[in-house]
Amino acid sequence: LVKTCLRCLEILYAEFRSELPSENSSKGFSAKRSLPNRQLLVGYWGQNAIGTKVSRPYWEKDLRYFCNQHKFDIYLVAFVHRLFRDNRNRDGYPGMNFAHHCSYAPDSQNPDLFECATIGGGIRDCQKLGRKMLISLGGDTCDGSLGTTENAKKLAYYIWNLFLGGKDMEDKRPFLWTVMDGVDLDIEIGSHRYYPDFVREMRRLMNTDPSKQYLITAAPQCPFPDKWMGPQIQGSALEHYGQEFDYLFIQFYNNYCYPGDHYFLPVIDTWLQWARSVPNGPLIVLGLPAGPQAAGKPHYYFPPDKLAHVY
Predict the structure, then answer these.
(1) Closest CA to 133 of 187, 83, 67
(2) Which residues are in the GH18 domain (predicted)?
(3) How many of the other CB atoms lie within 10 Å of CB of 117?
(4) Could you give the 3-state DSSP secondary structure of residue 86?
(5) CA-CA distances (angstroms) from residue 78 to 42, 157, 194, 225, 256?
(6) Rounded CA gap, 302 and 309, in Å?
(7) What is the set of domains in the chain, with CATH numbers?
(8) Is the pLDDT of residue 11 over 80?
(9) DSSP letter for each residue of 33-60
(10) Given 34, 38, 156, 209, which is the most exposed site by the fewest CB atoms within 10 A?
(11) Are 237 and 229 contacting, i.e. CB atoms less than 8 angstroms apart?
């Protein structure tokens, strides 16, 4: 399995790029996504995986630092990591972990439902600078099994009301009145089943708020199809609702299809061909480890200058 925490080193070093459509693309980019029509820089933030390798002054910095100092277009705030099977919250709210950035739980009966005003303030500051801020579900310790259609819809309801535009749980929102820009699925353990129900319900809720353009993204591993997201797997989210995803942050590392291997470009082409076959399908983002320490093995890291031929 890809170890997600390994790519959550200080986001400064993350190197992610996307292929964007031409102006004549049927993707409807300008209508559906309010992001620049150019290659994008995207990074995961919140897990401080570098914390075990360096002293505290060099730990992952807060969101304000990155948004003021670096030109990332999308930040994926990670993670909501306890869904159903390993949920410790009495009332069933999804649990979260943001490393040293926040761990305050105001209700002892819901120990993994945090109140993180500082993160919320950082998100709002980043949004003022034009950044898109998504909440990421999953990670390499998260059992992503949903179990039932009812659970899938319930999770969408929780995410909508805890992090996005919902109003039903205002006293429980981890980032207070902050309204994030979407949701990311980084599912690496458990079952792929019922994610179509989650995605369909999530998009339905998003469509009730015409004041904001919300994103749905995912981080499948590079072998095609991905075991958890699909496509071409019956009951997977990408097989049934690929058109509802805006971006796929595909993990091109810790697998045979890493940069430098002869499978790399053919696998990229396979993902691109599939995305083009889906009406209004997702844009493909090349996901790379943040540095040599962020990869399972040193050869999985590929310096940005050596990737120029991809573009």
Answers:
(1) 67
(2) 39-311
(3) 13
(4) coil
(5) 13, 19, 22, 24, 26
(6) 13
(7) 37-310 (3.20.20.80)
(8) no
(9) --S-SS---EEEES--GGGGTS-GGGSP
(10) 38
(11) yes
Which of 15-19, 64-68, 151-155, 220-224 is predicted with the least confidence, judged by mean pLDDT?
Answer: 15-19
CB environment 266-302: b (16+ within 10 A), e (fewer): ebbebbeebbeebebbbbbbbbbbbbebbbbeeebbb
Which pTM was predicted?
Answer: 0.89
Assign residue 76 a region: left if phi > 0, alpha if psi is -120 to 50, beta otherwise? beta
Any idea which of 46-60, 129-143, 174-188, 286-300 has the lowest mean pLDDT? 286-300
Non-local (6+) Cβ contacts of 65 within 8 A are none
- State the first-to-last Cα distance of the chain, in angstroms, to the nearest integer: 28
Active-site annotation, residues:
188
Residue range 166-175, pLDDT digits in tens: 999 999 999 9
Q: Which residue shows structure tokens 């031929």?
A: 309
Dihedral, 143, 205, 160, 38 alpha carbons, nearest 10: 80
pLDDT, greater one: 295 or 193: 193
Alpha helices of 190-309 — where are they, by DSSP H? 195-206, 237-241, 264-277
In angstroms, the CA 249 to CA 231 distance is 14
Q: Could you say which DSSP state residue 29 is in?
A: H
